[in-house]
Design goal:
The chain is of the alpha+beta class. The chain is built from seven helices and 15 strands. The protein is globular and about 55 Å long. The protein starts with 9 loop residues before the first strand and ends with a helix.
Length: 288
């Protein structure tokens, strides 16, 4: 497969559809130097983006959290995504919306005079964790921790927050793992590098309180599914020493969907009935 910069197709960019290979930015784009960028990862099923509007609203909110305003309304972003989907010819697709501070009069930390730009692309993307979706992913434990909300706008889906995620995932893959689990700055269980995490014990579900990391849209969807099934959900701080007592584990995310976890470090989990039920139920929900 060719690289993401060398494909046929169209990308929506600043209000226009442009050829995929021509969707470029200048080397002095502010976001490239200072991470002034926010994004959304979305999936379309049977031609419809799941919870599309929530993603567009979160994109706008993320930009505000890192001190810039996207020059498009939620309705305009929604219309742009529909245009991209129509142009792509895909029914099942991954959709990436990104907004950033571009090149302009400023080229230092401050960039108030630079234009805010935006682009949307769509492509085919299968299971994020490959066959782990069926047999259970193997996770490493990251040496990096999710930072305090006092140090960074941790609830924004912002590019800079993912640097330690990239480093953690690379280290995990070097060990033969699919991903890494991260603790937060206090030592509590937090999340994987790009997905939220859930545990099962005695028929009840435990998931970290997202007080210093992204409260994922898929996470919220799955919690709703569990409550519909009358399964008790505990959103709380989880200590590392508790992990060995959990029986099942899964990850959630737009890219990950619902992926069972078979191992985290030295801890093992079964791909149990509740995990399978939620994974199958999510597959049905996104296509209704």
């Amino acid at each position: 497969m060719s690289g993401y910069d060398d494909r046929d197709g169209k990308i929506w960019m600043d209000g226009q559809m442009v050829n995929w290979r021509e969707a470029n930015v200048h080397i002095l784009t502010h976001a490239m130097h200072y991470a002034s960028s926010v994004f959304e990862g979305e999936r379309a099923y049977s031609g419809k983006i799941f919870k599309s509007r929530q993603h567009s609203e979160r994109l706008k909110a993320s930009a505000e959290m890192i001190d810039f305003e996207i020059p498009y309304t939620v309705d305009e972003i929604e219309a742009a995504k529909e245009q991209v989907m129509a142009e792509s010819g895909l029914s099942d697709a991954y959709v990436r919306a990104v907004a950033w501070r571009g090149a302009g009069e400023d080229m230092g930390v401050a960039s108030a005079r630079n234009p805010v730009r935006m682009a949307i692309a769509a492509w085919e993307w299968g299971a994020y964790y490959g066959d782990s979706k069926y047999k259970g992913a193997k996770l490493d434990i990251s040496k990096w921790k999710r930072p305090s909300p006092e140090t960074i706008p941790s609830h924004a889906k912002a590019a800079g927050l993912y640097m330690i995620c990239t480093m953690s995932k690379h280290a995990a893959e070097a060990k033969g793992c699919a991903d890494a689990m991260m603790f937060d700055y206090r030592g509590y269980v937090a999340e994987a590098t790009g997905a939220n995490i859930f545990f099962v014990k005695d028929g009840e579900v435990h998931t970290p309180d997202p007080d210093c990391f992204l409260n994922g849209i898929t996470r919220q969807t799955v919690i709703g599914m569990l409550k519909d099934r009358q399964v008790k959900v505990h959103e709380r701080h989880i200590m590392p020493e508790e992990i060995e007592s959990f029986e099942q584990c899964w990850l959630t995310g737009t890219a990950a969907e619902v992926t069972p976890v078979g191992q985290i470090g030295d801890w093992n989990f079964e791909v149990g009935a509740l995990t399978k039920d939620i994974a199958e139920g999510y597959e049905k929900l996104v296509r209704t």
